[in-house]
Amino acid sequence: MIEKTLSIIKPDAVERNLIGTIVGRFEKEGFKVVAMKLQRLTKDDAKDFYIEHKARPFYNSLVEYMTSGPVVLMVLQRENAIAKNREVMGATNPAQALPGTIRKEYALSLEKNSVHGSDSAASAAREVEFFFPELVRGC
Ligand code: CMP
Q1: How far apart are CA 108 and CA 93, in angstroms?
Q2: Does the beta carbon of 110 sit less than 6 angstroms from any atom of ligand 1?
Q3: pTM value surpassing 0.90
């Protein structure tokens, strides 16, 4: 099934000039970039986006980090995009990510893990609409 998923190139990767490398990696894996913008998230954006983690001890630090510099927000499309994106990114913790994955190659730490990707169909629907409402509502 052709799916869309939300991908974020996080501040640590943007800061290290890895945008082209990471986008190229996704394109090589057959993803089509169907929407893209460079943006500095506000505190409210980051808090709302990661609201499911509100009770976790890392939440405040995550919000600080995600607003520390610009991010690239993208909608990626391909067959089974949600699962394939997670495979290409690798495990959240780079120490557990498989060789060849983006996080294994580029992440700096569990928090500064270079990329975010939607983890389910429900998350993808919410996250794509969160940053690209025009794609969902067709306006
Ligand atoms: P992400 O896939 O964007 O989802 C939540 C983010 O919180 C995660 O990547 C990391 O950047 C960050 N994070 C920090 N500590 C943890 C943790 N212990 N478990 C999961 N995510 C964490």
Answers
A1: 10
A2: yes
A3: yes
